[in-house]
Amino acid sequence: xxxxxxxxxxxxxxxxxIACLHNSFVQGIGDGSLPPSKFAYYVGQDAFFLEAFARAxxxxxxxVADWQGFNIxxxxxxxxxxxxxxxxxxASNWGIDLQQVEPGxxxxxxxDFLLATAWSQDxxxxxxxxxxxxxxxxxxxxxxxxxxxxxxxxxxxxQTYSSAEFTPLTEQLEQLSDRYATLTPLTRSxxxxxxQCELDFFQMAWELD
Length: 209
Fold this sequence. Notes:
Blueprint: H1 5-12, H2 14-22, H3 24-31, H4 36-63, H5 67-94, H6 105-120, H7 123-144, H8 155-162, H9 166-180, H10 185-206
């Protein structure tokens, strides 16, 4: 086992992290210029994604052998449920019916990958598949908050992901990855695929007509 596995994988995939930061959708959130229709679409897609994310945590909790790991995976699932409440608030403000959301191609590709990994692989690989989302959002939130939280329509998004409450959730998942996973070609490809899914997810929302 590598105690620095999560950090090593993050460094290996900085190209995709930077590509996400510089994506037009993310930059539009950062400066407030993102068209509301694109953000509304993203909120619905992200809510669909987060439901699958919570299920993947729960599958990992059921499969992990030790009680400490069980509790941490469940706590992380609880964090996702809190995040979904935030999206429900967004949906109410932006007039989105989350019950009517149809997943886009990039969304379905990402959720299918996560759930297939959770069911078919060990808990370490599942943690690795989920880690890019958490780590990336903490990174994006902190980068967009450099110099202070801006005052525009997407300020709460930046505040959420740059907050002191979100960072510990990311660190918990990093610890689970370090504890249960090893650095193999599979974990490397799993992590990178998830990072690519993140970039594709932002690009899908940006390309919405």
